[in-house]
Design goal:
The protein has helices at about 10-25, 45-65, 75, 90-110, 115, 135-160. It is an all-alpha fold and about 170 residues long. It is globular, with a radius of gyration of 16 Å.
């Protein structure tokens, strides 16, 4: 197991890696057509959920000082509402972006220092018990990824796909 420089981020790195695995597992076998289906026209589609997940990876990298830009930021940044008038990328395109950004962000998580993580980062939530730091932003990203994988898992079942498998690909190192 990789050892991060920061003791504070040690709780984040295993979750980050598990979410990488869960993201790929939950999308396994979903057709591009089904990935654009909405339930009663009220839910987001799987493509939107997957795109928001990938955007969280880019956002975390950006907050930690990386310069990589999400090519689909205008569709997903800050959970932007689904817009049916826009063309969304395919799941394959999103997976490609996921594989490009995720190892870079993981390496950055390993390299970040406690001092950097304590830097203020205004999230704009204005919740009195949430100190707006880079560390807490990283934690919120992990929470959002959990939520999105759960939503995609539910959509799998609604669309008559089998439940997500929890197999681990040991070659996935991020």
């Amino acid at each position: 197991m990789d050892t991060p420089k920061s003791k504070k981020i040690e709780v984040i790195t295993p979750a980050y890696r598990m979410h990488s695995q869960s993201f790929l597992n939950v999308l396994e076998g979903i057709s591009e057509d089904d990935a654009l289906k909405r339930i009663k026209n009220t839910t987001n589609h799987i493509v939107w959920m997957a795109g928001n997940f990938v955007n969280m990876r880019y956002s975390l990298g950006w907050v930690l000082g990386m310069k990589d830009e999400d090519p689909y930021s205008e569709l997903f940044f800050q959970g932007k509402a689904l817009d049916e008038t826009k063309k969304y990328p395919s799941l394959e395109e999103l997976k490609k972006n996921f594989h490009e950004i995720s190892p870079k962000v993981y390496q950055r998580l390993l390299d970040v220092t406690d001092e950097e993580l304590e830097e203020l980062f205004e999230i704009g939530m204005n919740i009195p018990y949430v100190k707006e730091t880079k560390l807490n932003f990283a934690g919120m990203c992990i929470g959002r990824e959990d939520y999105l994988c759960g939503q995609i898992g539910l959509m799998r079942r609604i669309l008559d796909y089998p439940g997500m498998k929890y197999e681990v690909d040991e070659t996935l190192t991020y």
